[in-house]
Amino acid sequence: MHIDGDAFFASCEQSRRPKLQGRPVVTGKERGIAASMSYEAKARGVTRGMRIADIRKVCPEAVILPSDYETYSLLSKRFFAIVRRYTPDVEEYSIDECFADLTGLRRPLRMSYLKIAERIKKELDAELGFTFSVGLAPNKVVAKIASKWAKPSGLTAIPGRELHRYLAKLPVEKVWGIGPNTTAFLRKHDIRTALEFAQRPEAWVKKYLSKPFYQIWQELNGACVFELATGEHDTYYTIQKVKTFTPASSDRAFVFAQLAKNIENACIKTRKYKLATQRVVIFLRTQEFRDLGLEVELTRPTLFPNDILRAVTPVFEELFSPATAYRATGVILCKLTEAYYGQLDLFGETIRMQRLSNLYESVDTLREKYGKHTVFLGASFLAHRSAQHDGERGHLPERRRELLPGETARKRLGIPMFMGEVT
């Protein structure tokens, strides 16, 4: 089963404030662009990433609110807890969607799989105050197709014997995991629907496509290949950090500070999992949503931002143009291996790495006690000095403006605010 919250962030706001039910609601006021929009707003022409000024033109009656990610996270936890009343096998795929395995539950719950799915959806809709779309199928890829089949608030079951009927109506680019490049390749071979892809011979798929697409092909043919990831990550193959900031900036020092902050955040994660990276990709996103990136191969694996910044600074200078406005920076740490300093070397590199390790042990201790970025590199100073988005200081959500009794900025109770007035 795949369960997807309908317009999740905007729906959370409508649930918290009943007066907003049925009205066009948009979140993202602090960023100056639409981060999420209710179906009422979508029907009036509001799209993701649209500027506030443009939203006012196409939908003057829109209620535009700052994003309250703390509350959305709390409601997400309630969402997953409700699903776990029925099955412990739940994969929290993202904040607003999950996969759940119902295999073997018909007899103990004394109802069919479809009835179980109906019961879960009914409880989610009633207890969270907004709707969810549910797909029931033999595997994850088809369940994902099913949940999107009748959005919003749909429940679609696709049994194996009926699978071909649904795939015949589905464009191949709508299959989970098939992106624009693969779609273009498949179209060159006259494959336009999911069924046409599923009917290709296995040998052809193995010859022309990589393993992930072969696995998708298997699931489109009814096999169950992708298992549920129900536990926490114990390691990572890549680590990525991306941050958007508004307004867009062409200030070199500010944009580099944003990149440095991303690198620091990525390295916090590598240290947590005792990993080191030897390949780094950095990219800058322009105001027109165009990504410009370059890759750097390090001379040896590292888990410290100092080393990465030294290596990527020349690459940043290649990418950056003072005539361009940038709205986001990002970093991807690749080629991750277990952190290891090795034996002593002639030039004292191992000693330097050990000293950095001791330093960052202290930094991480301070972070755990006093909060993230209590200590940070001078390179990211400008990113820490200003709000991530220009409107953040004036458009904070209620949950951040009004503390509950006993709360501090760092110590929070896991309780969302409901019934607040619209401001």
Features:
423 residues; alpha+beta; MutS, DNA mismatch repair protein, domain I; DNA polymerase, domain 1; Dna Ligase, domain 1; five-stranded mixed beta sheet
Please, could you describe this protein's structure?
This protein is α+β, with helices and mostly antiparallel strands and 423 residues long. Among the domains are: 7-71, MutS, DNA mismatch repair protein, domain I; 162-231, Orthogonal Bundle (DNA polymerase, domain 1), CATH 1.10.150; 239-385, Dna Ligase, domain 1, CATH 3.30.1490.100. The chain is built from 17 helices and 13 strands. It has helices spanning 8-16, 39-43, 52-58, 69-83, 106-109, 113-128, 140-147, 163-168, 180-188, 194-198, 202-208, 211-220, 252-272, 305-319, 349-370, 381-385, 398-401; strands at 2-5, 25-27, 36-37, 63-65, 90-94, 97-100, 132-136, 155-157, 239-249, 275-286, 291-302, 326-334, 337-338. Strand 5 and strand 6 (97-100) form a beta hairpin. The protein is globular. The relative contact order is 0.11.
